[in-house]
Amino acid sequence: MTTFELEEYLEANSQIVDTFRDKYAAFLNEQNADRPTNKKWSSLRIKNETSSAVIKFISNIQAKLSSAMKPRQQKSYDGWVDYMERNETIDSLEESLMDLDFV
Fold first, then answer.
1. pTM, whole model, 2 decimals?
2. CA contacts within 13 A on the Cβ side of 103
3. 88 burial class (0-12, 13-18, 19+ CB within 10 angstroms)?
4. Which H or E element spans position 46?
5. Total count of domains within the chain
6. Quick check: is 56 in a domain?
7. Owning domain of residue 81
């Protein structure tokens, strides 16, 4: 499963990506509010930084899942979905995101 496919799967089956995106954007906006006026980031930069963080977040999930999966499972989309369902990956990620705070 590619990073793009994993992101699509998570978006279709959970609020994980949206929750992460919202929390990270809120964190960047808080940081931006504390910056001097001449150093504030534009909303486009905040959006781009957030998108970059989401990609890294999904890539991290993909790497961790991949290292835990058997090689034959990694070869097919269905193998990934089966692994995530059997191990309740989405539930675990949603619980983890509830406690996530950026500092």
1. 0.89
2. 2
3. exposed
4. helix 43-68
5. 1
6. yes
7. 3-98
